[in-house]
Specification:
The complex is a heterodimer. Chain A has three domains: 37 residues, no CATH class; 187 residues, Sulfite Oxidase, Chain A, domain 2 (Alpha-Beta Complex); 110 residues, Immunoglobulin-like, CATH 2.60.40. Helix content of chain A is 12%, strand content 32%. Chain A is built from six helices and 26 strands. In chain A, the strands form six sheets. In chain A, strands 7-6-15-10-11 form a five-stranded mixed sheet. The longest helix of chain A is centred in the first third of the chain and has 19 residues. Chain A starts with a helix and ends with a strand. The N terminus of chain A is likely disordered. Chain B is an all-alpha fold. Chain B has two domains: 51 residues, no CATH class; 75 residues, Orthogonal Bundle (Cytochrome Bc1 Complex, Chain D, domain 2). In chain B, helix 4 crosses helix 7. The radius of gyration of chain B is 18 Å and the shape is globular. The chains are: A mainly beta, B mainly alpha. At the A-B interface, strand 2 and strand 5 of A face helix 2, helix 3, strand 1 and helix 5 of B.
Chain lengths: 414, 133
């Protein structure tokens, strides 16, 4: 643990006060004996106590979500909303980069401009997209590149997300390929640049903008979505249309998409060249004292799994059956196996997989467990995808991206 | 947010720094946007953002921090962070200037770092310090 004494003391106080509120001091001594110092060995595998107040707030079209920032809004989904195959729109996480976010969209004047290296530039209304192109539908998991950043040690600056900067939804819209074909991509195109209605607070601030390689943009899977779980998108999730890049981190899923520019040169922007970059290896791994000299733009999502139940502060009871549950995802091969350990990784058992909603969907999992005796148990979960890729036990990078380490959770059994 | 802070932000904007209308609209919702929200069932879709300003801790050079940093983003960008070393905070401030174009003088940058170290600093050896991004 790299925590300072002060942080540990804070975490300890918070944890103890939670226990006291749940059942009095007797519970504390039963669970841990009288040696409170031993609490410092617990890794809460959850949000460190120093990370803001994480209070629940309610934004328009959204239910109570965890507040990270209010200008621009960054809202995290509480774990309890991950108990269904599709994440409700009002519970879906929110992440904007620049304070000038769209709060009003007039569909009479809103147009998606498609231009650049094309033979026939287009200006499309929402109705054009809905009526002039074939509609397609896909369940796809979305996840912030910095999801779970607060769990990295040593800590890194950035949005201090827990595990809730993610969600799974059924998207409906049109293929980006079909729109590009209608615009007539000219020979020599190399990338597609994407940006939305959000505007920077200062003239010198680079507008939020991302690019995809032209072949990726035309793979027939990347989508311009106008529906999410059968409804229009919430304003804070990118109304009226957003890009869906199945299997890729959400930084590419440009919200309130207003411009598609076909490029004959790679896009030069802070958001591709400096931000959202990871060490150039499969696990986005490096060491604080030996940073990777080469970085690349973050891309396909890694194999990843989390606990939804129990939640980090939850306590279980000896001899009572409990259903461990969670979700697992990867970058598009599909999850084939999830295993759970209750002894810190010494032994593993297969979890039962939930519905298969397609290779870009997350996969829910569950596993029954009856804690045999009082004490503290280190629960762990790891997933394997259809390509045989699984998860690693340690990982760190300077920006706190692509966290895909095997998750552990220290649970008190009373 | 105190009236003093609102006044500070507004006066900073009035001093000539360009602030997008969207930012101001966000902070000071108008009856016009309320009306637009009611028209949401038609072709105009609108929301009014709530305000959740954090408590801003006292510290040295608080006024500089408020003037230079909170123009573009909420103080929660700082309040949600764990404590970091001075090096990390220096790099964060530098990023705001170099990457995001924040018009902050070198003198002000140093004052802001002083504030950040005072409210979210940590004195630890390098092992516990995140390196610069």
């Amino acid at each position: 643990m790299e925590d300072t004494q002060g942080e540990l003391a804070h975490a300890r106080r918070r944890f103890i006060s939670t226990l006291i509120s749940l059942g009095g001091l007797a519970v504390v001594s039963r669970a841990f004996g009288d040696d409170f110092a031993s609490l410092s060995v617990f890794d809460f595998a959850t949000i460190p106590a120093d990370t803001g107040d994480r209070k629940l707030v309610r934004y328009p079209q959204k239910t109570d979500l965890i507040l990270l920032t209010d200008r621009p809004p960054q809202l995290e989904t509480p774990l309890r909303y991950f108990g269904t195959d599709l994440t409700p729109n009002d519970a879906f996480f929110v992440r904007w980069h620049l304070s000038g976010i769209p709060t009003t969209v007039d569909l009479r004047t809103f147009r998606l401009e498609v231009g650049g290296h094309v033979s026939k530039p287009l200006s499309l209304s929402l109705k054009d997209l809905q009526s002039k192109f074939e509609a397609v539908s896909l369940v796809a998991f979305s996840q912030c590149a910095g999801n779970s950043r607060s769990l990295f040690e040593p800590r890194v600056p950035g949005g201090q997300w827990g595990n809730g900067a993610m969600g799974n939804a059924r998207w409906k819209g049109v293929r980006l390929k079909d729109v590009l074909d209608a615009a007539g991509v000219l020979p020599g195109a190399v990338q597609v640049g994407l940006h939305g209605l959000d505007v920077p607070p200062l003239p010198k601030t680079p507008r939020f903008e991302k690019s995809l390689e032209i072949d990726h943009a035309r793979d027939g899977e990347v989508m311009i979505a106008y529906e999410m779980n059968g409804e229009l998108l919430p304003m804070l999730n990118g109304f009226p249309i957003r890009i869906v890049v199945p299997g890729w981190y959400a930084t590419y899923w440009v919200k309130s998409l207003s411009s598609i520019s076909v490029l004959d040169q790679p896009l030069k922007t802070f958001w591709m060249d400096k931000a959202y970059r990871i060490p150039n290896n499969a696990d986005a791994n490096e060491e604080p004292q030996h940073l990777s000299p080469v970085t690349v733009p973050i891309n396909r999502m890694a194999v990843h799994s989390i606990f939804v139940r129990p939640e980090p502060d939850e306590q279980l009871r000896t001899g009572q059956s409990y259903e461990l549950a969670g979700v697992a995802n990867d970058g598009g091969a599909g999850i084939r196996r999830v295993e759970v350990s209750k002894d810190g990784g010494q032994t593993w058992n297969d979890a039962t997989l939930g519905a298969d909603l397609g290779k870009y969907s997350w996969r829910r999992w569950q596993a029954k467990w009856t804690p045999p005796a009082k004490g503290t148990y280190r629960l762990m979960v790891r997933a394997t995808n259809n390509d045989g890729e699984t998860q690693r036990t340690t990982q760190w990078n300077r920006s706190g991206y692509q966290r895909d380490v095997i998750e552990h959770l220290d649970v008190a059994v009373l | 947010m105190s009236h003093r802070r609102i006044a500070l932000v507004l006066s900073t904007a009035a001093m000539g720094v360009t602030v997008s209308a969207a930012v101001l609209a966000q902070r000071h919702s108008t009856s016009a946007s309320q009306a637009a929200a009611k028209a949401g069932s038609s072709q105009v879709h609108s929301i009014v953002l709530p305000k959740y300003p954090p408590e801003i801790p006292q510290g040295p050079n608080l006024e500089v921090y408020e003037k230079d940093c909170l123009l573009c983003h909420t103080a929660r960008y700082v309040s949600m962070q764990p404590p970091f070393s001075k090096t990390v905070w220096q790099n964060e401030v530098k990023k705001m200037v170099d990457a995001y174009g924040a018009p902050i003088s070198e003198a002000d940058q140093a004052l802001i770092v002083e504030y950040l170290v005072a409210v979210k600093g940590v004195e630890v050896p390098a092992a516990a310090t995140a390196p610069p991004k």
